[in-house]
Amino acid sequence: MELLFEGIREAFRLLIHADPEVVRITLLSLKISGCATFISLIIGIGAGMLIALVEFPGKRLLISIINTGMGLPPVVVGLFVTIFIWRNGPLGFLGILYTPTAMIAAQAIIATPIVAGITIAAIQHLPEELRLQILALGATRTQMVWMLMKESRLPLLAAVMAGFGGVISEIGASIMVGGNIMGYTRVLTTATVMETSRGNFDVAIALGVILLLLSFSVNFILTTIQQYDKK
Amino acid sequence: MNRKNIFLCALLALALVIALHAGVRAAGKDIILATTTSTQDSGLLDILVPLFQKKTGYFVKTIAVGSGQAMAMGERGEADVLLVHSPESELKFMQGGHGVNRRIVMHNDFIIVGPKSDGANIRGMKSTAESFRKIASSSSLFLSRGDNSGTHAKEIKIWQKAGIAPERERWYQQTGLGMGQTLNVAAEKGGYTIADRGTYLALKKNIPLDVMVEGDVSLRNIYHVIEINPAKHAGINSAGARAFARFIISREAQSIIRDFGVAKYGAPLFYPDAGMKE
Fold it and tell me: What does B143-189 look like in DSSP terms, one character per residue?
């Protein structure tokens, strides 16, 4: 118990003194997971809208696959991405193994099905008549898609939060494709594991607390936006 | 609508720029160093690597895994230089032509640690094989790394010497984790384990385990640096590997190794060996 308080005290000490290493690790976490979430939003919302609005054979199967992908184990993603991008792999010429770029790619793969799955559920949840009504009022196709997105903005923001929350807290893929290199690919989760195995439990707890604070701040901002126009 | 589109495109472009920027580095300046968890967990590389980078301009990607995995990476050409401590597998690795210029860097020693209560009654024993036999005969809990690391290889060798096959015994558990974490598990469960002295000293303040057996010749833990053979695979940064190997056996690095940890733990964690005969 004492250790816990010590760790929390250490967290605030590191934050108040703006320890350069901790600041760097925190910013890198934010940058990598932010980029990954952004990429997953473009692909996930795009694909989700398409799948939800277009009828085609095998649609149910595809949605089942995406829903399964929402629980994709990060370590499996990490393994496959590693095999693809290592020097002798099919994408080895890119030379991106053990770089932040590889971490962004792996995290984007983890977050995309989450965003797509929630998007599909959100759009399908809207009443069918709404689409017909919008089209009947003379809207173009793009305008209709835009209005449907606006109509389901609450669940779509939830998709952003779920995607971001999923990748900022994951470790399996980050450590495999990033390698936990000091000052380069070391993020909050991988640093926490390393400090634990070094026996620096107070620093490990401190990094954990910072991760929670970061996650909370981002979600608080998103929730505020989400709830703002509800009133 | 239009403005929003432009805004979205700008955001996407920005994200791409950041993503690419993060990955771009001068080619040929990156070295992948595959090494053991003990060199990272003890903090030694946090001092040596930045110094090397500053002196040479290379960028070292340190990947801390077990010695077994490090050599597997070397065999596939996924690393440029290794710093490992599993002499028998290293010799096999060299015979396979995967590495060049295998050179001794430093040593410390393995120790057998256990709970203060010492249920197997092995404290102070001199023979490692004998102490393992007593752990087995008293069915005391033993935690194995189980990860093909150098430490795991050493442990297997001692069991063989003791004439015991512990894999299926109930008192024998494999963690599959690094050295630091395995020590933590042993401390929590009150079990015995074998560790390198460096990691043990680094964790000592938090774990209630005592040194039980030490000093046996068979407990010597020797680290070698190996450059990966560039003839075997394309894309090996052999110049960088050579520079790193030369650096770590240089007088400067060796004196850092000698002094490392003395102020903090009262004893050195590693002893420099460069140029010595084995």
Answer: EE--SS-HHHHHHHHHHHHHT---TT-TTEEE--S-HHHHHHHHHHH
The answer as to whether B14 is a domain residue is: no
> Are B22 and A194 an interchain contact pair (Cβ–Cβ within 8 Å)?
no
Distance CA B124, CA B130 (A): 12
Say yes or no for a CB contact (<8 Å) between A99 and B23.
yes
Q: Is the pLDDT of residue B14 over 70?
A: no
On whether any CB of chain B is under 8 Å from the CB of A101, the answer is: yes
Domain harbouring B184, CATH code: 3.40.190.10
Out of A88, A102, A197, name the one closest to residue B77 (CB): A88
Question: What is the pTM assigned to this prediction?
Answer: 0.83
Q: B29, A87, A162: which is closest to A96 by C-alpha?
A: A87
pLDDT tens digit sequence for A157-175: 999 999 999 999 999 999 9
Asked if residue B13 belongs to a domain, the reply is no
Determine contact: A38 vs chain B, CB below 8 A.
yes
Residue type, B130: E
Whole-angstrom distance, CA of residue A117 vs CA of residue A40? 12
Residue B107 pLDDT exceeds 70:
yes
CB A82 within 8 A of CB B9: no
Interface size A-B, in CB pairs within 8 Å, comes to 87
**In Å, what is the CA distance from B158 to each residue of A128, B36, B110, B163, B168?**
71, 20, 12, 9, 17
pLDDT digits (tens, 9 = 90+) for A85-120: 988 888 988 889 999 999 999 999 999 999 999 999
Per the structure, the count of domains in chain B is: 2
Would you state the structure tokens that stand for residue B67, as one six-digit string?
Answer: 């010695």
Q: Which of A41, A70, A66 is nearest to A51 (CA)?
A: A66
pLDDT band of residue B253 (cuts 50, 70, 90) is: very high
Same-domain status, B208 and B124: yes
Q: Do B79 and B203 reside in the same domain of the chain? A: no
Q: Chain B: give the shortest CA distance to residue A205, in Å.
A: 14
The ipTM value here is: 0.80
Residues in chain A within 8 Å Cβ distance of B205: 199
| CA–CA dist A88, B235 (Å, integer) | 9
Q: Which residue of chain A comes nearest to B75, CA vs CA? A: A88
Percent of chain B surpassing pLDDT 70: 90
Chain A residue whose CA is closest to B31: A98
Beta strand pairing call for B99-115 and B209-213:
antiparallel
CATH superfamily of A24-184: MetI-like (1.10.3720.10)
